[in-house]
């Protein structure tokens, strides 16, 4: 099976690129290893609402995100931040009106960020997209799938995180300096774990609390109101426990998180209607062992000069970590797709 352009990876960059190629009338095909589209964008559903277990926000001034939401007809609303925020100290004592966890001014999407994925997928022909189709080897104009099929293309675009892309097999092995440069780029939020607790009502709001909290004790280091636009109440948090410790104490993590939510917000928090935990460090299509080391700051992302020579072989790499601007953010994923579409068209 042959196409002009083969996209490997069905996350935001891959789908946004597919959309641009479709608009330009190009012949393209997209394959995704997972059984779903979205990559690091992932939501869970409950009571006619969806909650993000991947990225949750974008910000004013990120014009590509705003334009895409408008084009797809997705409502945008502000992160709830009214009321008192909390700080939990190392001893587990809770202090009101302290801490620096508020995300006031951040923007969310009705239906969660998966609404972007669903919307983009609806704009392109289903026949051009295949899920549950992991690539095992990339050759000169050929991608070999795990089931043994070979897909041929004039150009191959890999939209996986650079560290994940470096672990693929290449019929013509990549130079050691190229692989080293790819492996040196941290996967944004790759070693992170995130949870959401869903409730019958936003009881913290009734107590004058914003839902924002930061903790020096954990296991959650940062907590926010995740209530959906249609009013289904929820709190979400980022787990501060390192990946290996999470794996070693997996059965203890949920009880410890609920106990912490109880300390912060009251006994109502101990019994959610539903609880979901996503450990991205265990996702082989998103992270590698190199991502188990926590990030201390936002990396300095951008195009990688070592990859430019591969374009002569019609092999290209794209994604938010390689974006010309706003690297690591959803806006960066769209910027990367825009830049790659310009290169190919």
From TrEMBL:
Tagged with keyword Oxidoreductase: yes
Pfam families per record: Amino_oxidase (PF01593), NAD_binding_8 (PF13450)
InterPro entries linked: Amino_oxidase, FAD/NAD-bd_sf, Flavin_MAO
Keyword Oxidoreductase annotated: yes
Domain Amine oxidase: 104-343
Record protein name field: Flavin-containing monoamine oxidase AofH
Name of the coding gene: aofH
Family: Belongs to the flavin monoamine oxidase family.
UniProt KW keywords: Oxidoreductase
Gene Ontology MF terms in the entry: oxidoreductase activity
Organism field: Pontivivens insulae
EC number(s) from the headed UniProt entry: 1.4.3.-
